[in-house]
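Hi R.,

As promised, here are both runs. First protein below:
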Amino acid sequence: MLDIKTFGPQGGNVLYKALSHPLAVDAMKQLEQTLNGRSLAVYDPEGYLPTVRGLYPAIRPSVILTHDSEQVGQPDGLGGQKQAVVHLAETEAEAVLALSFDHDRMRSRLEGFLGGKPLHTLGEARLPDDFLPYRRSYLDRCNFATNFAFFRETEQFSTRLVTANYWSNYGAAELRYWLRLFDGTGHVLAEWFQEVEDADAGVVIDSRTVKEQFGLPDFVGQLFIHVIGAKGHDVVKYALDSFGRNGDPSLSVTHDANAWPSMRFATLPAPDADETVRLWVQNSHGTAIPSGAITLNPMGEEDHRAVEQVIGPYETVAVDVGALFPDLKWPAQLELRSGRHLVRPRYEVVQRGRTRIAHMNVERADLLPDPAIRTMSPLLGRGFVLPFPVLDPAVHTSFVQPTPMSESLKSLPMRLDLFDEAGQSCGSHFLGDLPRNHQGAVALHELMDQPGHAELVYDFRNGGEGDGWPHALMRYRHVGTDHAAETSFGGHIFNTMMTWRNEPQSYAGPPPGLTTRLFLKLGQQLDGVTLRSFCHLIYPTSLRDGRQPSRTCLHLHAANGTELAQETISIQPSGSWLLKPHELFDAELLQRAGEGGYVLIRDLTCRLFGYHGLENGVGSFSLDHMFGF
């Protein structure tokens, strides 16, 4: 396990991102070599040492120094006692490492106490100045708008990352992407800048283009993304399409990774009888993952089976889930104990000549079952709601599987509420107080005879507990072509004026979140086939009282960010809309928008939620939940 602080209100995530940035890793590895074999005194004025040692275990302090008089003589966590920094010259240390990115300040502070010992600081691992739009504080979170993406280009598969310059909405004027591509062994294949000159412009990074631009061999690896000039927040969001090539009919989509590692991840399905489930383990750090440090177990069971091989820095390894658990079959689900070595892992399901890719979700360690959820005010209606599409039962099958998404949750008291596209109720189905290790999935196409959507909500009639983080895995299949897709998401309180803690969530401020800003990419041409985008747009409501039909504006943007057209639609509360840009906008406008164009879904009256994808018109489709900003 990596003993690192990766996320927290005190900015631990920014420190983690600064220390784990690939450019910082390069410099820290040099520092490790410089200090190797030398007795080392470490001065840690900001409490950085656990994260530094977690990421760089070759840094082995002999002495821990403190300027806090009350800490002198206290255990240092390494088997010794903290010593006063003013006695630095008297220690036997051969070198000093001050854990601060401000080298000049540390030099000025410590110079009179060094006694001739060489001073090193984290300033040696600072990013170049042209990566730092915010100079006053190095650990400004917007200096580290970073993320990873699964990235692949082979004869069989291509990938395509699509997003937009949403940072311009927060006032960002100059923006560029710094990208570093790692191959499957963790070696750097390429690095480059991609300029984004226009406000609201579309951003596309295509594996085919990258391979051609740099003359690369085939690769299956990961792309590190640093958005320089971000403003407003540090979350790098994108959609990632995966395409089958040279006759492979596969088509799927997933989305951005969480930018910090977690101890556990969930929503990994066990393979069906004729499936291979491949878990892509991608080391997110410059330190190797030891053999056995990553394990899988059936959800709710203490049967842990390890990934035995050592996984090198930034290496990508495919793990055959069925080989680890040959007797475990869908609808069983698994949990990944990742030891904080990974950001959001991807998995791939291979079945009958088609491959679909999806992601696991962070399993929260900080959430406990909360009795207050059982006694929420009636002003919040049904409280937490998890909405998802029910595709046309005449054409598709639709399954849902509730999944635990916090470490301490023992049961899931759940009910399904069903709605048609007009928002009319199609019934409810109590699922029971499901145990953590339940192995069930509900066939929604057997409960509805028309398209619409379903919502998972808490139902405590038989007891149980809620943690405010309800999740589910949704799986869809075209009955004619056998093409399948899957996605997973969590629930929120939707569209109530009254609030409960941080719900209903808002992207742009404090709750209640009652507006919508969603990104829907347009389609493209692939090997002579037209792929068109769509989204299932849902108007979920925890409380229907007082809700009016939506006034949803669809803004068509060209690849350069120029707005070309607007259309307005209206969705009933608890209703949904299958939105297809090619049916709303003129073909000439869509052609002008181009393959970097997109639709911004905007609503100032309510918060909508959606699931997007591409379709080829003959049964192949992708599906994943949308992102907003």
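And here is the second one, sequence first, then its structure tokens:
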Amino acid sequence: MTEAAIEKENKQIARQYKELLRISYQTLSEDDKKLIRKAFDTAVDAHKDQRRKSGEAYIFHPIAVAKIVASEIGLDATSIAAALLHDVVEDTEYTLLNIEKMFGETVAKIVDGLTKISSLKKDKDVSLQAENFRKMLLTLNDDVRVIIIKIADRLHNMQTMDAMRPDKQIKIASETLYIYAPLAHRIGLYNIKTELEDLGLKYTDPEVYHDILKKIKESKEDQDIYIKAFSRVIEDSLDKESLDYSIKGRPKSIYSINRKIQTQNISFDEIYDKFAIRIIYKSEPSQEKFLAWKIYSIVTDHFRPNPTRLRDWISSPKSTGYEALHITVMGPKGRWVEVQIRSERMNEIAEKGYAAHYKYKQGDDNKEERGFEEWVTRLQEALENPDVNAVDFVEQFKLNLYSKEIFVFTPQGDLKSLPKGSTPLDFAFSIHTEIGLRTRGARVNSKLVPLSHELKSGDQVEIITSDNAQPNVNWLDYATTARARAKIKSSLKDEKKEIAEEGKAVLARKLKAQKIQFNEKSINELVVFFNLKTSLDLFYRVGIGKIDNQLLKDFANSRSNSLVSYFKNKIKKPQVAADINKDEITAKYDQLVFGKEEEKLDYKLANCCNPIPGDTVFGFISVNDGIKVHKKDCPNALQLQSNYAYRIIQAKWIDSSQQDFQSVIKLQGIDNLGLVSEITKEISSNLGVNTKNLNFDSSDGIFNGRITLVVKNNNNLNTIIQRLKKINGIDKVSRE
């Protein structure tokens, strides 16, 4: 480069730096400015020999990221400094230790988190991508600013991707749509989420993107004329009330227009809400709600509202903190128009997310720190994840991100926000993990409801708890939120591990009786013999009685058959279970069950999607072929579920060796006072046994009873039968 070009570039860098300070959303103190200057000088020095693919000096990238962080997201000086330094440790001679010495622990921690994310393996494989995403979210435990700066970094990369190879563009754009846009949505960065989605579409489907963009530009003039016509109708009325306001039109994003075209199967011209009208008003905090409804009444005096499209997020803000009043009205020329009513404060929160919460939080000098803490806590709860399967986690996470919210009340009248489709179990876990784990039942609007009951906005929910209650595997069918499901899975794992510990002691005793040593070799042989994966699988199944004395005798016989052993050892090496020492109890999905009663029925697997054991599936009752089993995400699923809902039957894969089973006990005896009470007491004292049905009948002094129980295994059932026989007055106990 010539000296003149270098001089010009340096002036441009200096200009960008001054602009960074000027556009910062937070008020910067002198110390803040010194910190940012030091970070800027360090970044300039570190990247001095680097250039981007486009040919410009690399330093323009960290400055651009810092500008997004400072202005569009509105973070503090620490974050701006970390954004300037975000690539320094990964790409230059500077080490993390250098950064810590120069800028302190917080900045170093954020830079370290960003370096870790960048060094995650990049791969097209979806499960690896999901695993990377999961690891990335775990950095939240260090500092949530890591994720936010990463989103800003991704936004600038997406804005400047033109110089990249097409395959690289598609890969980065797909990852953006899969991970970063949902994340920006969850954090409440709606403007950035919209831009990421639009840019994602620009590279994944350029033809569609440019086609919609062209149509939006062509219709802009009409749109501006329409907004003016709409505004003219209500301006006089708003002015009469002495309101200080502005009316703006906001086009819907290209991505959301395309999604509507796809999902509703309509053309661009058929979409009526290609833009929204936003009325932003100035107001004192105490007057905000009153003025919002005043503007609402003025708008609806002039234009007829669609009552089903009213969204009041002022009385009940979204979990991201978003507040506004949304109405859809019949505007001029018979067109439906969405009108968003927001105060200036609400508008800032909608655009800046939690940074604006800082600014408006009332209280002591430490309000910023408190606001930040509250926000981080809320976000971490949403991302909580002890789940093993990364793909499941990402799908669950995205479901919870985009799901619409409902608002329900606690018995004390407090308001809780939950995703649409939530059940009393989700509500219980959202209050406290312990309440969730101890749930015995629920009342909705004072009526007892099943734990699978779907809650609706406005419901008042009361959770009935018991010290003896504990989660069972069916709860996973009732809970929908990631938090509740993660806690239930964790509890079930702990319970299984306790059973496995008991099973280990039982197995040691039983092997001794068979003259077999209890060591790693014999455990490995048992794991292979029973076609399991881990030693915990083995201990657990012994603990629940699925591997009983007879099966262990079969194992001992196969082992002592010297001829068989001789040939086995000669022909092939002894098999070794791959995961024998893994600290996990795995499932062998080997059986399909249908309906709420989990019945075993005849079925065929559908050829269109070829489900395999473990897939989430549903049954479809066909006319000629009986029950056909399809994957939930089968291409035909939507059509079948919408057109033939009455022929859909619940279905799921289970691990038959871990499943409880149902059994009926018949009792006969001489009727006496308190007999029923003694029977029920005996059954309820047996942990791990559920009573499904009780039927008692007394005639001429003779007592007959029929009890349906859900038990873990045979031993469980036999213990109960023996105990029932000992009750005074009972003559006969038998299995039906």
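A quick note on the second one: Confidence is low (pLDDT under 50) at residues 121-126, 362-368. Let me know what you think.

Best,
J.
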